[in-house]
Write a structure and sequence with these properties.
Layout (H helix, E strand, L loop, with lengths): L3 H8 L3 H9 L6 H14 L5 H8 L4 E5 L8 H17 L3 E5 L4 H10 L5 E4 L9 H6 L4 E4 L10 E4 L1 H14 L4 E6 L2 H5 L3 H16 L3 E6 L4 H14 L5 E4 L5 H10 L9 E5 L2 H6 L5 E3 L3 H16 L7 E4 L3 E2 L9
Parallel strand pairs: 1-2, 1-3, 3-4, 4-5, 5-11, 6-7, 6-8, 8-9, 9-10
Antiparallel strand pairs: 10-12
Helix pairs in contact: 1-2, 1-3, 5-14, 8-10, 11-12
Length: 334
């Protein structure tokens, strides 16, 4: 097993200098720090976790707070979690996954326990009760999502408002004049979850800007609900020719429901979605979509935290621009 003395000998420094490079307790030159880090990587040195924590007053553990509330699509959440864990390991950190709906009390208990060095918080609501605590914690945090008032916080996410707009602009550019948004489950809107609200804002703003007739329909995440929403849309808007879907589990059931009601996709109805690329590509009719950049957002949240832990400045807001991939589900209005 590689020891700290082996690293010191390889880097041409004293063992205490290697310790300072690991703990940050004393300043050393950037050149020396880089030499030590190169030797650590080359030799595969791994400091003992307990000793490292005692030396640096850090646990090298990040908390990922993702309450599994009603209406959350767990497979997509897990994509974010895997990305966070993978990125954290590159920085020699582990991740503590917190899935209980404990709100402010749960966050405070974890922060006060010294179990973690920093927190990544998901499922952010517009008026999230956890925000005052996060602003006052002595540990850094990053939110995956944006509240209504993000001042004093560090937030990263896909620009969901721009994503809603881009889907509408695509349909408008193809000549569609009557469109609908099949959105997240109702409870997601009741909680005022930020990403869902912003898709609606972008969808509505772009529809109004282009003079389109539009409506928004929350949908439970099951095939029966998809059928009911399809029937309601056609009953209320018989001239419907375009749909935006922001609800991963009902994407394919919704296409099946419209076709059972006599509308071929894309011959009679163009469908776009905001969902993971792999889902959009494997639907029976591959769907024009805006990808959920889970890997990029998860890794980005960890990079922001590492900079904050190191005392470096970071931007308060990081919004990833949406990218639309055109597939077989959209075409010009018939």
């Amino acid at each position: 097993m590689v020891k700290i003395t082996d690293v010191a000998r390889h880097a041409g420094v004293s063992p205490s200098t290697v310790s300072y490079a690991l703990s940050g307790k004393r300043p050393i030159s950037e050149e020396t720090r880089q030499r030590v880090e190169d030797s650590i990587r080359e030799l595969g040195y791994r400091p003992h976790a307990g000793a490292r924590a005692l030396a640096s007053s850090r646990s090298n553990v990040l908390a990922l707070v993702v309450p599994l509330r009603a209406g959350i699509h767990v497979p997509v959440v897990m994509q974010f979690a895997v990305s966070v864990v993978t990125a954290a390991r590159r920085h020699d950190h582990d991740v503590l996954l917190l899935t209980q709906e404990e709100g402010e009390e749960g966050l405070r208990r974890v922060a006060d326990s010294a179990l973690v060095d920093a927190l990544i918080v998901m499922d952010v609501q517009l008026h999230d009760a956890r925000l005052p605590l996060l602003r006052g914690l002595d540990r850094p945090s990053v939110l995956i999502g944006f509240p209504a008032e993000p001042a004093g916080l560090t937030c990263i996410d896909l620009d969901f408002k721009a994503a809603g707009e881009l889907c509408v602009e695509h349909l408008a550019g193809l000549g569609h004049r009557v469109i609908g948004l099949v959105g997240s489950p109702p409870e997601v809107y009741v909680r005022e979850t930020g990403f869902a609200q912003r898709v609606v804002q972008g969808f509505t703003a772009a529809a109004d800007r282009n003079g389109l007739s539009s409506s928004v329909h929350p949908c439970e995440a099951d095939p029966a609900a998809a059928r009911q929403v399809a029937e309601q849309l056609l009953r209320e808007r018989p001239a419907l020719t375009g749909v935006v879907v922001h609800n991963e589990p009902v994407l394919e059931p919704l296409i099946d429901a419209f076709e059972a009601l006599g509308l071929r996709v894309p011959g009679d109805l163009s469908v776009t979605a905001i969902c993971p690329d792999e889902l959009a590509g494997r639907v029976r009719v591959p769907v024009t979509s805006i990808a959920i950049p889970a890997a990029e957002v998860g890794a980005g949240s960890v990079e922001l935290l590492m900079k904050k832990l190191g005392g470096a400045p970071v931007p308060q807001a990081t919004l990833l621009p949406p990218r639309l991939t055109v597939r077989a589900s959209t075409q010009p209005r018939p």
